[in-house]
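Rotation project, supervised by the postdoc (A.L.). Task for the rotation student: set up a whole-complex structure prediction and record inputs and outputs verbatim in this book. Inputs entered:
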Amino acid sequence: MNMVVCVKRVPDTAESEVHIDASGKDIDKSKLSFGINEADNYAVEEAIQIKERLGGTVNVISVGGKDSDEQIRMALAKGGDEAIRIEDPAMAGSDGFAIAKALAAAIKGMEFDIVFTGALADDDGSAVVGVALAELLGVNHAAYVKKVEILEDGKKIKVGRELEGGLMEFLEMELPAVLTIQTGINEPRYASFKGIKQAAKKEIAIKSLSDLGLDASEVGEAGSWAVLEKFTPPVVGEMAEILTGEPEETAAKLAAILKEKGLV
Amino acid sequence: MEGWTSLEAIRNSAEFTSLKEEEMSDLFQPVHEDFRKTLREYIEKELAPHADEWEEAEEFPLEKFREMGQLGFLGMQYPEEYGGDNDILAEAVFHEEMPRCGSAGVAATLGAHIGIAMPQINKYGTKEQKEKYLIPGIKGESIGALGITEPEAGSDVAGIKTYAIKDGSDWIINGSKTFITNGVRCDWVVLAVKTDREKGYGGISQIIVDKGTPGFEVSKKLKKLGWRASDTAELSFIDCRVPGDALLGELNKGFYQIMANFAWERLIMALGAVAGAQIVMEAALGYAKERHAFGQPIAKFQVIAHTLADMATEIEAGRQLTYYALKLYMEGKNPIKEVSMAKLYTCDMACRVVDNALQIFGGYGFMEEYPIARAFRDTRLGPIGGGTREIMREIIVRTMGI
Ligand SMILES: Cc1cc2nc3c(=O)[nH]c(=O)nc-3n(C[C@H](O)[C@H](O)[C@H](O)COP(=O)(O)OP(=O)(O)OC[C@H]3O[C@@H](n4cnc5c(N)ncnc54)[C@H](O)[C@@H]3O)c2cc1C
Ligand SMILES: Cc1cc2nc3c(=O)[nH]c(=O)nc-3n(C[C@H](O)[C@H](O)[C@H](O)COP(=O)(O)OP(=O)(O)OC[C@H]3O[C@@H](n4cnc5c(N)ncnc54)[C@H](O)[C@@H]3O)c2cc1C
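Outputs recorded:
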């Protein structure tokens, strides 16, 4: 199996306060720590487990600045073979579709059976890149994948997709394909120091848009379908009724409202 | 000069955001920083959530020991041929990250095995001894301990009474050891014994004793103020017979062999003290910003703010001294003075920092529910273990020609 995994470096906002920055188009990331997008960590693990079972290669790709090398190196340390990082000033302002164009341009020339992406990025959360990438590559796809089984001949796979309410949908599809991986599909490993040392010796190929045969107008805001205009904190709704007073009073008021509206 | 009014601006400027630990030293290479991230993730996800449970049980589970071995976290300083990485700085990173697990007992269990017991085998063992102890030790399949201290001799190593006499080609050992970390569960212990009872330093040898050897018993598991998740034991040896090839290194050179690794033992204690103090200081800082009294966050009281400033300053001083000693050590300079200073300063400093942090936490600091109470108990071992603060001063004094 020849596999490609797309990884994104994202800020860890789970336990930090998030503030909109001066541009109004981003959050202030100066005090945040960064890591691999959670779903991508599972995608890397899935590819490496398949490689360990069936052989093949795992190629890691990221669109991002030099800092993203950290996430790429970690994927290499866990068992990735080669890596590409796409970096170009013209990428700024790209939506998921434009990112997918850059990824597709890099992947097109490769021999691949499966391309893995995460189901969703922890920061922008569009859940677009994987699906758009499959369209651009002209191959099958399955999104929110929580189980992958390679069928006998290695030309087909059976995947389980996570549906709501804990249901799984099983599909068989021909390879090559793009799978967007949901968290929880496996147990991501920890990189060993040995792996880290090996990864440090590997070269990460840096590609610009022109290396990929893309024009600046195809990416960035110009090449995007969605353009981010402004972040605003949600406005406090006017529908809310704030109950004031001692706890006994407010509890009584709340009970009366619930009863009146027929909610209890 | 804008004076006072610009303080707010300074606070908001990028310059004020504190440096990350890893940016403060040119010792560590990018591979070490990558390793730090992996370790930190592992420790935060797989160890820290269980720390309370292990402290309560006064035990660190063997499965975790094995797991860490399988992940390659126990062999960093050892040669590749035995499964290690031949990179002692990676082990330094390990000791810096371990305090994040929230239990010095867990850190001590692992630290005693990888940083104190196995180094003796690695430095002085024969090929057979290394194969027998290092390979499974690095995999986390066997646990080692170092047995020097005795009920009647701690600081004064030359005063140990446990002795071994030759019987044919075997050794027969009699005596007892105490305060031995991993003593209850170790699969082997590197023992300091007198092989020439007439002599002091010059009569000490090291002998490896396997668990289950007749005559070797754990006489007691000890109850402790801190380090509760680590097992600490009193061991007894009564006519304990081991083969001649259990001798580690040279006959009657044991004292020098023990001394040779004291530098590393003290360095890792210093690294752990600084890293632990940093965590406690950050917790106190966070708490001081949140906790209100008399209508304002307590961090706004100058006395609290200044205390925090002093804590941060002492931690930084300790870190730089430790890194300096580590750098000299890495350069093979045998920096006895600097290592002793680093151990002395950081272990005492950590006690001051934790004491101040406890004060900032007020009554909550005294409650076992909050991590400060445990840190307070755990930190106190620093100025005692691995050479007391008085012994550190004695060593420093000697380098001053007094
Ligand atoms: C205001 C703004 C500014 C931006 N500036 C830049 C910039 O300066 N430079 C730049 O490169 N990008 C920039 N981006 C792109 C952005 O970081 C995302 O990569 C893009 O919006 C994709 O959408 P998503 O992250 O929600 O992906 P989703 O569709 O939610 O992501 C799903 C999966 O797609 C894959 N994926 C997503 N992004 C990447 C990636 N970057 N590399 C590899 N795989 C990926 C991952 O596997 C991920 O799990 C900008 C986006 C916005 C909105
Ligand atoms: C939790 C724990 C784990 C330990 N793990 C191990 C282990 O794994 N292996 C091991 O071998 N040991 C271990 N030890 C023992 C530790 O190294 C000793 O406790 C330490 O070296 C001090 O020895 P002692 O307790 O006998 O004190 P003593 O040597 O009796 O000292 C008592 C006091 O006298 C002072 N003193 C002694 N000599 C002088 C002097 N010349 N000048 C001034 N003051 C002096 C000391 O500083 C101390 O304050 C451990 C101890 C503890 C508490």
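Student's summary: Chain B is about 50% helix and 15% strand.
Supervisor addendum: Residues B 112, 145-149, 154-155, 179-181, 224, 227, 232, 381, 384-388, 390-391, 394 surround flavin-adenine dinucleotide (ligand 2) (CB under 6 Å).
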